[in-house]
Amino acid sequence: MRHSNVIDIRGLNSYYGNRHVLFDIHFAIPANRITVIMGVSGCGKTTLLRHLIGLKPSPPGRLLVDGEDMGGFNEARMNQYRSRIGVLFQSGALFNSMSVADNVSVPLRVHSKLSRETIRIIATIKLHQVGLSEYCDYMPSQLSGGMQKRAGLARAMAMDPEILFVDEPSSGLDPITAAGLDNLILELRDTLGMTIIVVTHELESALHIADQIVVLDKGRLLAAGSPENIQSSQDERVVQFLQRQADQKHEDTEAYIKALVGRKLRQL
Amino acid sequence: MERRGLELGVGFFLIVGFGCLAYLSFNLGKVSLWGASSYDVYADFATVGTLKTRAPVTMAGVEIGQVKTIKLVDDQARITLEIQDAVQLSEDVIASIKTSGIIGEKYVSISPGASEEFIKPGGSIRDTQPPLDIEGLIGQFVFGSMDKSESQ
Amino acid sequence: MLRFVRMLGAAALDGIENLGRLGVYFWFMLRGLIRPPGKFWPVVKQIEFVGTKSFFVIGFTAISTGMVLGLQGHYTLSKFGSESVLGAAVALSLIRELGPVLTGLMVTGRAGSAMCAEIGIMRIDEQIDALECMAIDPYAYLVTPKLIASLIAFPLLTAYCDVVGIFGGYLVGVGLFGLNPGVYMNSVQSSVLWEDVYMGIVKSLCFSVLMIWICTYKGYYTGLDEGNFGPEQVSRATTKAVVLSSIAILLCDYMVTSIMT
């Protein structure tokens, strides 16, 4: 039986060295829906993503995949999980030594025993889905930023993943290209029924594509719910985020001055 | 295609590289892949002086093999000579240990014999001459007269 | 005072941690040998990169070194009236010492730096993360083919360097000083033993492992210490990689020589 929640996050804390970056995160990612993780830069959303795709080890019992503890995954189990997911990185992360089609073929070549020709055909199909079928033999450096991202998306989909992670799909793109990428993500959900997790700070695109929005602030979960819920939220920080107000600078003047001159004071 | 250039380049590199390596090993390093191209002959000496293993074995000044091992058997030094297959030693050859130059390295010189019988692999050379004991000679030369005067 | 002790302790702990990571990295690199993906074509590509493309630079280094050895050797030997062993002097210095070391240093400068930069760029561009997310072992995919290729290419390049160098000495000895060609070649042949050639091969194998180990390690951990992934980190990692592996090669050269003689 399928779990209705693909991933359950139960009180996740995360550290970089001594720095505490995620505080007690709680939410669930439903299957066949688009979940958008939002927040300002440096709020920990990329860290959360790295936990979800297993690049940063999770403490036991905090991250459940289909009800199974990801903290307890050994390497083989982790690889099995990773064969079910696709990840589109912020920069596209295409291998710049090989052509676009070869890039899309990499996971197929390593993980399947298909013939060269078959792999080539599959790669072309995937590139066609993202509208790049004419650019098969281009090198990544010959493509524009938006095209690189779409090619990265084609590679993420090469193994027909059940779960797709997308990191900042619209960063560095013009609004029209970004909107095109958003529509592509919506299409993937509707036609293939993928579970999609998008990390972004673009409010409009989030409201457009999300089935569920999760807002992070300074490593803490601020709100989670449908776009409508989030929009009608009364929380001060959420409202601030939605209305794109700049942070109230230096709320604590004394602390600010201390931060500026603290070192000198100690020396004096 | 692109792959053809790659194959060509790598093939070229491998050929030249292995060619050089083979030249160094076989021609300069004198490695023989076919180990059975030599046979062993033993010779017992009263003393071998400062002879070392791997010293050359020569006949008429031509190198025909090398010293493989040196060990003590029945209070005598037994050396094993590795002789090239192409060379056959008569039964009555004489093996002597000589020095190249006055203070040079020791080597084994084999003077040819006349017998029709040849030494079989694993056989031994009967006639041997120990090295000239240069230190002893010098000693005799210096102190020899004293010995004489004492005896008189 | 207490602060100094603490700094010393921190530095020591850091050093130990780095050494441990270096060891674990080596283990992962070896483990890559028995892991997918297939390595035939990647290895061929790397042999082309390390071997074929170093042909010119190694040949040039070798011939000039051989000629210099010929000149200097002749100058020294003629003082003792023993020009006839010029071949031995050139061949032994090349085969035992200069061939492996020069090849190691030149290939480090040419290929090692490029490998470090390549892997470093893949690190800062999240390509290594992408590999992991595709359930591909980045060590087996990126590092191990380079190791295999270098293990093949280094001894061959060294042999090539030796032969070209001996030829360079021949040019000077025979061409410039009018030495008898037979005397030169005979001196080469009679002086070189298999042990000398063997030592050169052992050295070149050690150097290849050192170069790959250090250069790819530095690339793999680009920016991880600073927690900052930028182009500047790649350039810094590349510089460090070349300097470190050159030093390691020279140290290792001394150790191998002292063990094997």
Characterization of the model:
The complex is a heterotrimer of chains A (268), B (152) and C (261). Chain A has 268 residues and is α/β, with parallel strands linked by helices. Chain A has two domains: 31-57 and 74-84 and 161-248, Rossmann fold (3-Layer(aba) Sandwich); 91-158, no CATH class. Chain A contains ten helices and ten strands. Chain A has helices at residues 45-52, 75-82, 100-111, 116-129, 145-156, 175-192, 203-209, 227-231, 236-242, 253-267; strands spanning 5-16, 19-30, 34-38, 63-65, 68-69, 85-88, 163-167, 195-200, 212-217, 220-225. In chain A, the strands form two sheets. A six-stranded mixed sheet of chain A has the order 6-7-8-3-9-10, sandwiched between helices. Chain A has a four-stranded antiparallel sheet with strand order 2-1-4-5, covered by helices on one side. In chain A, helix 3 runs parallel beside helix 5 (145-156). The longest helix of chain A has 18 residues, at 175-192. Chain B is an alpha/beta fold. Chain B folds into two domains: 1-31; 35-140, no CATH class. Chain B has two helices and eight strands; from the N terminus they run H-E-E-E-E-E-E-E-E-H. Chain B has helices at 2-28, 134-151; strands spanning 38-45, 56-59, 62-73, 76-84, 94-99, 106-111, 124-125, 127-129. Chain C is mostly helical. Chain C has one domain (53-260). Chain C is 84% helix and 0% strand. In chain C, helix 4 (86-124) packs parallel to helix 8. The relative contact order of chain C is 0.16. The chains are: A alpha/beta (268), B alpha/beta (152), C mainly alpha (261). Chain B binds chain C through residues 6-7, 9-10, 12-14, 16-18, 20-21, 23-25, 27-31, and chain C through 44-45, 47-48, 51-53, 55, 91, 95, 153, 155-157, 159-160, 162-163, 188-189, 192-194, 196-198, 200-201.
